Structure formats: C-alpha cells, structure tokens
Amino acid sequence: xxxxxxxxxxxWQRAFEDAVDSDQWGQKEExxxxxxxxxxILETVHRLNKLALSTLEVDSLxxxxxxxxxxxxxxxxxxxxxxxxxxxxxxxxxxxxxxxxTDPFPVFIPSAPTxxxxxxxxxxxxxxxxxxxxxxxxxxxxxxxxxxxNVSLADGGEPAxxxxxxxxxxxxxxxxxxxxxxxxxxxxxxxxGFKDEIxxxxxxxxxxxxxxxGKGNIIGRPQDTxxxxxxxxxxxxxxxxxxxxxxIASIPRTSALFFExxxxxxxKEMVASKAYCFIDWDQLNSLQPGKCALExxxxxxxxxRKTKPSLLSVKPLYLHLIASTQVA
Length: 328
Fold this sequence. Notes:
The protein is α+β, with helices and mostly antiparallel strands. The chain contains seven helices and ten strands.
C-alpha cells in the first residue's frame, strides 16, 4: 500500500529537523548534505506530483526547496549570501503545519539561487549518491538538475503538458513584442533516432532543453517535454512544440541550446541521460524555417563544450526538428 501524504510529510519533517540540528551544532558538512538530500526529494515530488498535492501545497514545496538551497548557499559561503540559521528555526513550525495551514512562507527570499557549472557538478554527485530515498524511488537521481522551483514561467503562462502522462514543463510562446531586427525561434520536435535494438528498450522518454552560456551556466529556465513511449521504426516520437524564450540577439554569442534525451531505467529504478544534441549561437542566428537534423552524441552533455563530443553511434543518428522563426 503506498504511503499517505501525511506519513510522507512526517518523514520529510524528521529529515528537516535532523538537518537543522546538525546546523545548530556547527556540523556544516552534515547540514549541507542533509539539506541537499531533502531538497532533492521535495523537488522530485513537486515535479512528478505522485502524492496528488494541491496547487497551494506544490507552491509551498517550491518555497521550501528555495529556502533549503539558500541555506546551503549560506553554509558554503560562510554566510556571505543565502539565509541564516535563525531563518531555518522560523521555517520549522511552518513546515510542520504545511499541509494544514495557508500561512505564507515565514522567511523573506532575497533572490533565487543560480546554477553554475560547479553547481551542476554538485547536483550530479548528489543524484548518483541518492539512488533511493524515503518513499520516492530514484527519480531523485535526475532530481531537477535545473532547479525549476526557482524560476518563474515567462509572461505568467502555464506549462504545456500531456493529459495522459507525465506533463513535462514546456513554456508557452513569448508574448512580448520583438524589437526591430530581433528574432525568436521555436521548434517542433518530431523524433529522435537510435539503433533499432536501443529504441525498442527505451521507456518513458523525454527531452530536457537548456540554454547555456560559454561557461556552461544555464540561462533562464530549462524545459522538459512530456514523456513518450511512441516509436516509429528506430525513432522515438515526440511531436511537441518548444519555444526558445529569449530572442537571439539577447543571447550571449558563446551560448548553445542543448537537447538531452532521458529515459526511465526500471532495472535501476532511476532516470538517466542517454544522449544529447546541441545548436550553437551561430547556427541559431542563421537558422531558417524548415526541417533540420542534429547529430546525436553520447551522454553526459558537456555544457561548457571544452571537449569534442563523441557520436553515439557510427550509424548516422539525428534529432529531427522543424524550425519556425518570428522576426520583427
């Protein structure tokens, strides 16, 4: 029998109290690890929402995740940024009553934490460490590398999704008018090619789309497609729209748009990255409307692009897209 929402919340509460105790005793390393551990659980829960949380409860979890990350930031920077231990003490009673109270988050959040290359490496080490935690299986291993809890939807839009499965987080088209000469790009993601034997074994596949700068830092909010199990020959079918939220001129010229193919591995009970593609700024700037195909490389994705990527297979494999542009 699956655990109830209340029972799961009690486990979160105990984990939070243990982390605060470590924090109080000056055990920084232990506190950071425990805060991070809990954050990964909560981020995964509010992303997948397998506990049927209300909108208010999901919003509360997002605020809690941001608070945990800011406390880790403070402990890692000797208090130069983030929030204080006293703030964590104020959060304790709020978190204990989160499911039964409509009280606002008790601590002012100065700003959302940003993800650097070093931060991403830290997240990768965490997701490998926590294969199974509490009542959430190792979806935590993928656990929101991009911290979706900390970035607002563009223009107040709602995420697009698949009503029959995992909804994904696809942002709507940007409604703001373009400046003269500016250009925005959208893609219809059609299909992703693999070897026949690999394609047939893929389960609950989705793609994460991230815009990154030349140092590997994520710009804006990454997007996830809905999950799919649809195949046509050796291709995984997606058939969904991806709207780049920034106009090309506003994106640093060292940037690139990454597409990471991820899928559920039932034998290991985890989400894992299988392959990736990317388009650099020059290609985005010169892109014309119509079909395009991107080479497929072996994971993990190197956002900094310091090393030459390796093709996934000697057999030509591509991510097939249809580009559309909006020009002022």
